[in-house]
Amino acid sequence: MSADVAATRRYFVPRPSPYPALMSFSIMLLAIGLGLGVNGYPAGRWFAGVGIISILFALTRWIGKVIAESQGGFYHHWEDRSFRLGMIWFIVSEVVLFATLFGVLFYEREVSLPWLASLDAHFTPWPHFSGAWPSAGPAGKHFSTVYPWGIPALNTLLLVSSGATVTRAHYWLRRDRRDALTFWLALTILLGVIFLVLQAREFYEAYTELGLTLGSGVYGATFFALTGLHGFHVTVGVVMLTALLARILRGHFDASHHFAFEAVSWYWHFVDVVWLLLFVLVYWL
Description:
Blueprint: H1 3-8, H2 19-38, H3 43-71, H4 77-117, H5 151-174, H6 178-210, H7 217-249, H8 259-284
Helix pairs in contact: 2-3, 4-7, 4-8, 5-6, 5-8, 6-7, 7-8
């Protein structure tokens, strides 16, 4: 089908694709593998490995097909509107996910512990119970919290700066200055990579020097759930930004049609805002 024919249609409908089914099957393999692994079955790692490889293959082929359709001129007003709505609802779902985890943190800190501390003086949930936050839980393992004005503060500066650099890159894209666009986008990627390296160092020090692990009671579990999930989102963002840079170097996008860049920049700003909340609610307060 030529681009001229596609342009006369109200909405471009691609041919049936095997990749959605392959993606669903791959995710199922990964879930089975993780379930088997948690329960001590050696086959779990093989299921999980095949699932991860299949996911990466399906994503690469699927996204490559979408890029080819975009470069072929098949996407117009209605497709662009659909993509924008899809990205908006995706970010809304991510907001709900992190809001749930922040809600868990609030409940643990402001509701659960004070309630347990208010129980009869002759009853304690576990030996040496203290109603103070952070709580080590029944295990009672001693740990120290991460100092907020070290790596966390530096990572905050890095992510806030990366939000400014990706905005600057978008500014030059809309003016079709590809040299400046490439520089600012590459700088954004570099800031994201440095963030991940520093977070990995923070996790290592937490485990080896502070005694803060996933087994350090409700605080340790919540801390790593929130910061680890955010780190995963930063990793995904860096991968997407790198893919954008590769496409820009190949001459993709122009000043008026570049929704893929806008979508990734929306996602990156969302990651920035979540980190600011993490820094204040998890590290600082």
